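Deliverable D4.2, example record:
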Amino acid sequence: MGVMTGYNMTKEEYEVTQAVLTRLNKFESELEALLLDLEPLDLSRLDTVVRDETLRMFNYLSRSYILLFDTVVYKDTLEEDIACGIVKIDGQSLDEEE
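Output generated by the structure prediction step:
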């Protein structure tokens, strides 16, 4: 493999990417808070059907949170690439553009 010299995004792609990253940050925080809120729940006191549904939801959210880590790694890498000038926006690094 060769050394990565950078890649180019259009201004529109950059703006969409930034909007997605912002939403991803909010989603990550919200999901983490939700899981922490559910953690102290005493499921033994719940009705069987409610307990099963709550466990199913908790398991789903936990798997979602684990899968989110892959996306967060991509997000962090992309933000670093943009900050270092590896990603060009319409052929210019972000600091050249401003």
